[in-house]
Write a structure and sequence with these properties.
Layout (H helix, E strand, L loop, with lengths): L6 E6 L2 H11 L3 E6 L4 E6 L5 E7 L8 E5 L2 H14 L16 E3 L4 E7 L5 E7 L10 E3 H7 L3
Parallel strand pairs: 1-4, 5-8
Antiparallel strand pairs: 2-3, 3-4, 6-7, 6-9, 7-8
InterPro entries: Glyas_Bleomycin-R_OHBP_Dase, Glyas_Fos-R_dOase_dom, VOC_core
Protein name: VOC family protein
Length: about 150
């Protein structure tokens, strides 16, 4: 029955600022702004594959986490530079000062994190080929390649 996740919603402190960030900085496509309440919808990907809802919340803002699917090669070659060029600070899951993508070995998946202007934790993630190796934990891509050589 379930084929995937179609939409998610996050709270933002200023709807217009958030729309600008997600469309102009990250490149999502504007879909609709509800004029009767402070909410906007953005398309993620092509052909209306998925949607992000932005809800303006002036008080008691609750930040969330969600991930954008990306290609492995794009995460490895372009993500850090892309984020820095947009004045965003990339960081890895361990938050150990490195801005290099990390592998979650249990999945396995490659990921890099950054925050939106309200502190929502965003992620670029790509599922890697092969089976998971949970015993390896979270490690650099180079360590992953070395430890999974056949």
């Amino acid at each position: 029955m379930i084929k995937g996740l179609y939409e998610t919603h996050v709270q933002v402190s200023d709807l217009n600022t958030a729309i600008e960030f997600y469309t102009k900085v990250l490149g999502l496509e504007f879909a609709h702004k509800d004029e009767t309440r402070p909410i906007a919808f953005l398309w993620i990907g092509k052909n209306k594959e998925s949607m992000l809802g932005l809800w303006e919340q002036k008080e008691n803002l609750q930040t969330r986490h969600f991930a954008f699917t990306a290609d492995t090669k794009d995460i490895l070659k372009y993500s850090v530079e892309f984020l820095k060029n947009k004045d965003l600070k990339p960081y890895n899951f361990l938050k150990n000062g490195s801005n290099q993508p990390m592998v979650f070995a249990w999945m396995p998946a490659l990921a890099i994190y950054f925050n939106d202007p309200d502190g929502n934790q965003l992620e670029f993630i790509s599922i890697l080929e092969g089976g998971g190796k949970p015993e390896l934990g979270v490690l650099s891509y180079e360590e992953w390649l070395e430890k999974t050589k056949s």
